[in-house]
Amino acid sequence: MYLREQKKLLERLRAVLRDKFQVELDTIAIEQPPEIKFGEYALPIAFELARKLKNAPRKIADEIVTELSPLEGFAGFEVAGAGYINARLDRGVAVCDVAAGADVEIAGGGLHSLVEHTSINPNKAAHVGHLRNAILGDTFVRLLRAIGQKVDVQNYIDNTGVQVADVVVGLMHLEGMSLGDVQALMAKLAASGERIDYYCWDLYARVSQWYEENEAQKQARKQVRLDTLHAIEHGGNEESQVGELISTAVLRRHLETMLRLDIEYDLLPRESEILHLHFWNLAFEQLKAKGVLYFETEGKNKGCWVMTRAGAAQTEDAADGPDEDAKVIVRSNGTVTYVGKDIAYHLWKFGLLGRDFGYQKFFEYPNHTCWISADQGEPDHPHFGGAQAIYNVIDSRQSDPQANVIEALRGLGYTDQAAHYTHFSYEMVALTPRCAEELGYEVAEEDRGRPYIEVSGRKGFGVKADDLIDKLIAASRSEVDKRHPELSAEERVQIANEIAIGALRYFMLKYTRNSVIAFDFKDALSFEGETGPYIQYAVVRTRSIFRKGDITAEQAMAEFAGVDASPYLTGEDGDSIWQVWLRAAKTTLLLDQCIATAEPAYLAKHAFQLAQEFSNFYRKHHILTEAYPERKKFLLATAAIAQRELIRSLAWLGISAPEVM
């Protein structure tokens, strides 16, 4: 409703500006008045037009208001202050629209999008920082699907990279293992209930220290690392077999970890197949033919194939010498950089490469299969790639490589694809000093006053994702056991899981993407303040109302149909109820805003504010003991609307609402 009325107001306003003032504006700002008593919308348009029309803002606003009324769905318009235009919705009509679920369709519903997220190096257990990536990506997938987009979810696996090589070095050089020994180790770990990703977590930290601990051996050990990396990339040797064995086993653990958060994938494209199927060769020919790449014959990049870096300034004396800031795509030794392989991969994503992966089934979810790339695949498989829009959830440190891939697409003439390529960047996750100590880490005295402590996989400092989830579930279970001893153990476990996962997902989503998160158990699990459990508890309260009233939310809405809500929406008392309906009406508006800005935090904030509005309403109005039948129907409908929009918002955030808490 809210989005529909806003669009209706903008259409009328554009018509007035065009007909009365012969003015066309690309954008028209709509604000919210400081208090609900002033209306639902505030338009500062008169101030923008004052200089252009050479007239006082107040005079312009008066003329606009005269032309705006009457407008269906609005009770009226008035000029405030020096020239603001306040717009008031017809509350009675609006409530009926919200109750009926009247809304507008958001543009872009038919698009085929591809969201790539998680993309953890398959060399050790997932940690808390990886969870932010996965939760952001999964939530954005849910938002896109909510407006009717076809969304492919991909998790890129760098199974031939340096971090996998480090674990292979650890196994074969530090531990002195052969391929057979590694297979025996994995069997032993499985038999004892130990986890390969946890084993590799510790091993990776030891390897990182091994490279640096002996100054005399440092160069030789780094060469071992480089030789191992080249062997894995080339394939057909024991190092590559060990790398394949370990990376595949760790990858399976990653999928199991993410499934605990209800995060699933459609395809796992791997670096190994991009190499073996020679994706780069096809991309290289396109890039050379279009002049995107050129061979450098001078300067520090002599012998390399390079491209002009994205955003590089053109200077007058650029022709006097080589571009020292050019982005190297193929090194002088013939190896391709990360950006080069990424360009080829994204040409495939958009269906522009002219070659495809083979595909094999890898992981079974309750309702669908997750496929993995292969050199030779199964004949019957879904179609992957060929997307119209791409969203890459990759941390902000990768902004430059991402920008260069977009620049390459533009240079190849794929301007529409470049315009629909979004680097969905985010900042890191750290730990509060209190959280680090709770996890058993020793925190130096000087670090205790810091807002956060950075995690480091190489140093082995951080919190494994599964350990974090387990700890949150244990804390939730303790609270549920105290509050609901009458429930079965199975029921209490289920509720504890829902609370813990809701707490974790909301904590990761409530911050805008460009904010560093300092994770803290106590803050995330609190039932008060801006947390997932607080919003879940608001839904639990609505269910309690209907349970005690021996009525369902659906029945309450059916009985409300035909009730004139207008008498209950005036005055201070009516304003507090109207706040709930108005906030509930904004859910689709927030969905639109989240997609347009690639920022799920706006929906998280909306859900919290709606929970607040409902809690204020709940404390102020005695719903079940209301003496007047028509007013009681209206109050029950208000609770039903809050429940509907809270559950809808939480579902888009990937959070369920328990029956009790």
Automatic annotation (TrEMBL):
Q: Which EC class does it fall in?
A: ligase
Q: Which Pfam families did the record assign?
A: Arg_tRNA_synt_N, DALR_1, tRNA-synt_1d
Q: A GO molecular function for this record?
A: ATP binding
Q: Which SUPFAM superfamilies does the record cross-reference, listed alphabetically? A: Anticodon-binding domain of a subclass of class I aminoacyl-tRNA synthetases, Arginyl-tRNA synthetase (ArgRS), N-terminal 'additional' domain, Nucleotidylyl transferase
Cite the Arginyl tRNA synthetase N-terminal domain residue spans from the record.
Answer: 7-89
Q: Which domain of life is it from?
A: Bacteria
Is the Ligase keyword given for this protein? yes
Q: Which residues form the DALR anticodon binding domain?
A: 535-661
Q: Which family is this sequence assigned to?
A: Belongs to the class-I aminoacyl-tRNA synthetase family.
Protein known as: arginine--tRNA ligase
Q: Which organism is it from?
A: Alloacidobacterium dinghuense
Q: Name the gene for this chain.
A: argS
